Amino acid sequence: MRIDIITVLPELLRSPFEHSILKRAQEKGLVEVVVHNLREYATNKQKSVDDYAFGGGAGMVMMIEPIAAAIEALQKERHYEEVIYLTPDGETLNQRMANTLSLQQNLIMLCGHYKGVDQRIRDHFVTKEISIGDYVLSGGELGAAVLADSIIRLVPGVLSDETSALTDTFQDDLLAPPVYTRPAAFRGWEVPPILLSGHQAKIEEWRMDQAMERTRTRRPDLFQQWNEQNQEESEN
User: Fold this and answer.
1) Residue 95: which of 64, 132, 121 has the closest Cα?
2) For residues 27-50, average pLDDT
3) Which of 40, 104, 129, 226 is the 20 to 30 A CA-CA neighbour of 62?
4) What local confidence, expressed as pLDDT, does residue 169 receive?
């Protein structure tokens, strides 16, 4: 997989990809992440990539010309399944979306800034718009890092135990059950006996019950969705 990230602040994206799982994924050759400085595609002497909005109003807008040049330059080199724009008004990122994107070969991520990008970029170049939550950040760089992390960890071979990703929260529309490790007793707080029983079938049943209850109480919206899906499957 290759991910190309277009940004006006490439330095913000150095650290997330130079450590831990994301670093190892690149060292293994499983993923290639390339960060592009949008200012390199600017056509004026000042290398500016923003201008005032037509019609007036506060804030600057990212210009169409350098963004178009950056995307088209990349598309001449390879085919991209998605050109993703990180924006607060995009579709909210979830696990299913991350799963789908992890199956692609090449992705472009465009980081918004200022008051956003010229709408014509969104109309003619962007294929998918993604938000990481209902709030506004100073730019799309942190959103791109979050999105990339959620995708890369799902690429086969990235995690040492690939089954780990399959049991993450949201993978089956349920929150993950509680987990425990040694010691089994700490300050009188005991690990649930079922987890020490060695009876794997009963352990899995307990985990499922805990996941359902946790989802029902903390995310009733997800629980209803999970319940409806299971009813549909049972009817079919």
Assistant:
1) 132
2) 95
3) 104
4) 59
Q: Residues 6 or more apart from 93 whose CB is under 8 A from it?
A: 130, 131, 132, 133, 146, 147, 150
Q: Quick one: pLDDT at residue 232?
A: 83
Domain boundary among 152, 183, 210: 152
Two structure tokens written together for 84: 């993703």
172 and 76 in a common domain? no
Task: Tell whether 145 and 172 lie within a shared domain.
Answer: no
> Quick check: is 162 in a domain?
no
Average pLDDT of the segment spanning 119-139: 97
- H runs (alpha helix) in the chain: 20-27, 64-77, 95-101, 119-124, 141-152, 163-166, 200-218, 220-235
Same structural domain for residues 175 and 216? yes
**pTM for the whole thing?**
0.89
* pLDDT tens per residue, range 153-204: 999 999 977 656 655 656 778 998 999 999 999 999 999 999 999 999 999 9
